[in-house]
Specification:
By secondary structure, this protein is of the alpha/beta class. It contains 11 helices and 9 strands. Helix content is 42%, strand content 17%.
Length: 233
């Protein structure tokens, strides 16, 4: 177990070394208020290399992404169709909706690309969303977010809808909530947009197998290979 703890500690330390690849959860984009906050934030400027004393500094952000299925919704459908889609409805919740054209314009202006990755067939999506077979684009969006997390990225969110769905589908989740973060980590997460504009931040641990197994092995029927961390609420 000691070796597993050391591996977990090393993975966590590496995860927050800049530049950090970040995926913007659609909940940040489909709400008019959070879209305005995102537009006015320093998230996009954090990708830019700064200069300190004449020496270029490493940018805090690496690549910025959105789920490819969500990006495809914006580019493939009319604005009215997008706003009536189950994807838009899922991520918006009760928030005042943004205009899809404004979302697409912001992404294009800042070079934000769609991310796609492998699917996770072992999760029970029927426990997380109603009738997943008929909500193919929403299911694909959630799978792409999970794939991004398991590939080492950090997810910024306005609402916990995505993380709740992943949890209910069977992904073990550690909810850190409002616990006080270490100063260095708080500064790093603030620099990439946590709190302003994102209320929630999440990342996954997947390589520290012995630690993941120790935390879940006596609780769950099958042993997962990924453990999800959630900051904020």
């Amino acid at each position: 177990m000691s070796a597993g703890n050391d591996q977990l500690r090393n993975e966590l330390e590496r995860k927050f070394e800049p530049p950090i690849d970040v995926l913007l959860d659609p909940s940040l984009l489909v709400s008019s208020r959070s879209l305005d906050r995102l537009t006015d934030s320093n998230v996009f400027s954090s990708q830019t290399q700064a200069t300190l004393g004449g020496t270029p500094t490493q940018p805090r952000l690496g690549e910025l992404y959105v789920p490819a299925a969500f990006y495809g919704l914006l580019t493939d459908e009319t604005e009215s169709t997008v706003q009536k889609s189950n994807v838009w409805d899922f991520y918006r919740g009760q928030a005042e909706p943004a205009f899809p054209d404004n979302v697409g314009e912001l992404l294009d202006q800042n070079g934000v690309e769609g991310f796609s990755g492998e699917t996770h067939a072992d999760l029970q999506w029927g426990n997380a969303i109603n009738d997943p077979d008929r909500r193919e684009r929403l299911l694909m969006t959630l799978q792409e977010e999970l794939s991004f997390l398991t590939n080492g990225g950090v997810l910024l969110l306005r609402s916990p809808a995505t993380l709740t769905a992943l949890r209910d589908a069977g992904l073990p989740t550690l909810d850190v909530g409002k616990s006080e973060l270490a100063p260095e980590l708080r500064e790093t997460l603030t620099g990439i947009g946590y709190r302003t504009p994102a209320n929630i931040c999440s990342f996954a641990v997947s390589s520290a197998q012995s630690t993941v197994d120790a935390l879940t092995g006596s609780i769950l029927r099958t042993t997962p290979d990924t453990l999800l961390y959630q900051f904020g609420d």
